[in-house]
Structures are given as C-alpha cells and as structure tokens.
Amino acid sequence: MNETLLSVLISICTLTSLVAIFFVINGNKNLKQVTKTLTYQYNLLVKIQNVLKNKASVNETTDKAEIIYQDLLQDLIPIMAAIDVMPRTTSEHPLWRALGGIMDEYAKNPFVLEKLRRVIKLDSNIAHNVGHYLNRANMFLQHMASTDTDGILSTTFTDGLLGQSLTFFAQAQALANTDK
C-alpha cells in the first residue's frame, strides 16, 4: 500500500511538475509576445515623436521663410515700378509672382537689364533696394544650403527664380557700378 501511495504521490508530483512546466513555457511565450508588442509600440512612439518634431521644425522654417519672402518682396516692389514690370497673374506666392514677372519680362525683352542698370545708377533708393535684395537673398540661400541635409531644397531655390533673379540683379548692379 505504501508503494501504491508512493507511486500515486510521484505521479501527482510529476503531473503537477508537467503542468507547471507547461504554464511556465506558455507564460514565457506570452511574456515574449508582450515584450515584442511593447518594443514595437515604443518604436512607433519614437517615430511619431520624430514626425512631430520634424513638423514643428518645418512649420518654424515656413514661418521664418514667410518673413524673408515678405522682406524680399518689399525690395522688389519699388524696383518693379521703376522698370515698369508687372507681376505674373498666377496663384503663386506674391514673391514668386513678382520674380516671375521680372524674369519673364527679361526673357521677352533683354533691354530690361539696361533699364534696371540706369535706374540703379540714377536712383539711390532703387540702388539700395537692389543691394538689400541681393544681400537678403544670398543670406537666405546660404542658410538653406547649410540647413538642407540632402540639398534638394537649396538647389531648387538656387536654380529657380531666386537664383536667376540674383544673377539678373547682380549683373545690373555690376553694370551700373562699372559705368560710374
């Protein structure tokens, strides 16, 4: 009887051990799954945080760019009036419409460069506006080049209307200064 009782106790202990091992293995699987899920959620939260930081950075850059755009536009308005050029009639930002109007007119009539040269030479306010525009636009392009990690945005500005207008105004200013 003792042997039977001992055998029953060993069987119960073995069965209990097997059930405990099963629960430990099952719990370990669940723990790994929870760990995996928490790691995924943590990585997702880090990505969301980075997106929000980038969005805040883009919004800040956009606000600063708008201030610079308005400053550049304030220099262009008297210049456009002096050389009798109208802005484009598009839905672009007013700065790009103004620059587009100047560059479109220059493409149609290269004499616009000569008109600008004369105005720079004869009107000190226009000369000041051209100089200020050149300085601010160059500073903006340098800032873009230093902050743009992949160079796509700064290249777009440099090769686009802003870069073309810088060349145009610099030529007119150089011609006006050599003619003194």
What does this structure look like?
88% of the residues lie in helices and 0% in strands. The chain is mainly alpha-helical and 180 residues long.
Layout of secondary structure:
Elements: H1 2-83, H2 94-108, H3 111-122, H4 124-147, H5 152-159, H6 161-178
Q: In one word, what is the shape? A: rod-shaped
Structural class label: mainly alpha
Largest sheet: none
Encode the helix/strand succession as letters.
Answer: HHHHHH
Share in β-strands: under 5%
**SS element count, helices:** 6
Number of strands: 0
Q: Average pLDDT, to the nearest integer?
A: 86
Keywords:
88% helix; mainly alpha; 180 residues; single chain
In short:
By secondary structure, this protein is mostly helical. The protein has helices spanning 2-83, 94-108, 111-122, 124-147, 152-159, 161-178. Helix 2 (94-108) packs across helix 6 (161-178).
